[in-house]
């Protein structure tokens, strides 16, 4: 039986064209994450999760480098290894989702669109809220 950390390890693809595609995807999402560091409305960690996934397909060394990053590595490892989201990140995500829906409610005239956005945000919010907050690594530290 494999451990959680080996379960999520990506195998690099053998096709050279696909490797370049995955490298481009990883680079694009790393760039978005870097922009998210300075723009408070743009998330950083979700972009790094996608970048780490794509990097694992193109370059396991790049994936390992992202996972070792002192700031962004811990949330990546927590998500990839345990499917866990830290409580502060959950609160921030859910608060921003509520604020976003409020903005839609105030600015959009079509009731069906307000309801659709609300339904999507509730669905995503329930997913986020039901993820574990702690993992074994948090308790060991």
Plain-language structure description:
- This protein has helices at 4-7, 16-38, 45-58, 60-68, 73-82, 87-107, 111-129, 136-140.
- With 141 residues, it is mainly α.
- It folds into 2 domains: 1-83, no CATH class; 84-141.
- The chain is globular and about 50 Å long.
Would you spell out the secondary-structure blueprint of this structure?
Elements: H1 4-7, H2 16-38, H3 45-58, H4 60-68, H5 73-82, H6 87-107, H7 111-129, H8 136-140
Radius of gyration: 17 Å
Helix content: over 70%
Strand content: under 5%
Tally of structural domains: 2
Q: Report the major sheet.
A: none
Uncertain residue ranges? 1-8
Q: Briefly, what is this?
A:
The chain is built from eight helices and no strands. By secondary structure, it is mostly helical.
Keywords summarizing the entry:
141 residues
